[in-house]
User: Fold Transcriptional regulator from Microbacterium faecale.
Amino acid sequence: MRISARGDYAVRACLELAVRPDDAPLSAEAIATGQDIPRRFLEGILPDLRRADIILSQRGARGGHRLARAPEDVTVADVIRAVEGPLVYVRDDRPSDVELRGTATPLVNVWVALRANVRAVLESVTLADLADGRLPNDIANLVADPGAWEQE
Assistant:
């Protein structure tokens, strides 16, 4: 699994909206500035978030973008799926659609298990969690393991 700039920027943009105390619309420029996201790149992401009913947009002098749902109802997985599609691919296929033969057959189970674990993490963390600076206990325990920070 690879989180692209598009996925990272989408989550950061939604987080910028989640921390707004008054739920007032925020301009694309303000989101881009607040999260150090190239504005033009962000403008390509916002329509996908709108189509996925994650954000609402309004035009005009008092226009801008805001979350369509409460931050506790939007997971990191929701945002990434909105801009990237399925969370885990194997050669452009969903893990459960991969067909392998011979000695490689058991590898499908590894790819499906990987998807299950990615889902377990990304579907359990909400924008509210991130806005509050906290993680669910299971995720916090993963991060607390020193081995999680090591590159291999």
Q: What stands out?
A: The two ends are 15 Å apart (CA to CA). The helical segments are 5-18, 28-35, 39-51, 76-84, 107-122, 127-131, 137-144.
